[in-house]
Amino acid sequence: MGRVNKRYLFYISQNYSYAILRPLQQVILARGDEVCWFLEGKEVDATFLKPTETRLLSIDDVKAWRPDAVFVPGNVVPSFIPGIKVGVFHGFAAGKINRKGRLNHFEIRDCFDLYCTQGPETTLPFIQLAEKFGTFRVAETGWPTLDPMFTNALVNPYRIEGDDRPTILFCSTFSRNLSCAPIIFEEIKAISLQGRWRLLVQFHPKMNKEVVDRYKTLENENLTFVETDNVLPLLNAADVMLCDTSSIMIMFLLQRKPVVTFNNHTQRTHLVNVTQLEDIQPALTRVLARPPELMAEIDRYCNNIHPNRDGCSSERVLAATDNLIESGIEDLKPKPLNILRNFKMRRKLGYWKFF
How far apart are the two ends of the chain, measured CA to CA in Å? Predict the structure, then answer.
């Protein structure tokens, strides 16, 4: 009897999810299995889909297609669609606290059967949570998003041939209480006018539009404002990152490149943090020299966050998922009904069938 193809659904609600899941899609398709995409809500742009990618337009379509597993680079997924639910995360644990006073990265919302963690720092807490709840399993796989970064498979439009100036990438979170973008605007403007460094600026897609529009006015021969669904080429093109608390800085650090933060409260030794505007440029100058003690701290941190550098995280995610598909989830405890959350998701999706 021949091999039966498996079906995998990519359930996304943000544009950055395309780049998160495409390395996984490449592995799935290479072995002859099937992928379909489902786009939830108004914040994800269907024009980012490639002509070769298949989109399911409704929950009825999803149920008719019957995926074996559903990959989610987000926090929630409806329980009323078929398939093993796999959480693959939309970023790293950046220490953000949610409204309940808990670390948002480790909030269990009773949606997933499997969490594919990125490294020891997240694996151990999730194993402890799995023991506590009994409703899901955990596999340390690494993050598929980073596979192209570790395999030199990136096409990079942000490198300028003949421009040997150091490149600074400025990124900022959208949270009003945590974002440094409004505070350091004039400093970024001053740096861009000096011209000794090349600046790339990229913000979280949920960043306040007024802040985005203000920064776009700074564009000149030394500063480029970038809007993209794939940040990996940006990370690759820069020598140093300037940031606040956005988890994108963890992706940057994993290249073994230094980060300067403004008003970051974690006090981690792998970061160079400043609290005064006049200290930003001296800090950037310092880390561009790659001080050995700082680079050693970055290396220790990376080994704990994401030790795998082989570019094969997608294969490990797929293997862990297939193991769960084959073994089943009958030995897991039933998840709470979460009537309110399921009602909200049905309302959001306009889906009221119960069979």
Answer: 32
| Model pLDDT for residues 249-304, shown as the tens digit of each residue | 999 999 999 999 999 988 899 999 999 999 999 999 999 999 999 999 999 999 99
Instruction: Answer yes or no: are the C-beta atoms of 102 and 117 closer than 8 Å.
Output: no
Residues 16, 138: contact at Cβ < 8 Å?
Answer: no
Beta strands at 114-117 and 137-140: parallel, antiparallel or unpaired: parallel
Is pTM, for the whole model, over 0.85?
yes
Contact 130, 153 (CB under 8 A): no
**Letter string b/e over residues 33-51, b meaning 16 or more CB atoms within 10 A of that residue's CB:** bebbbbbbeeebeeebeee
pLDDT tens digits, one per residue of 220-246: 999 999 998 889 999 999 999 999 988
CA distance 317 to 304: 18
Q: Give the Cα separation of 335 and 157 in Å (integer).
A: 45
Residue 307, C-beta contacts closer than 8 angstroms, at least 6 positions apart: 119, 120, 142
For residue 319, give the amino acid letter.
Answer: A
Cβ contact 90:14 at 8 Å = yes
Cβ atoms of 321 and 69 closer than 8 Å: yes
Q: Which residues pair with 137 in a beta bridge?
A: 114
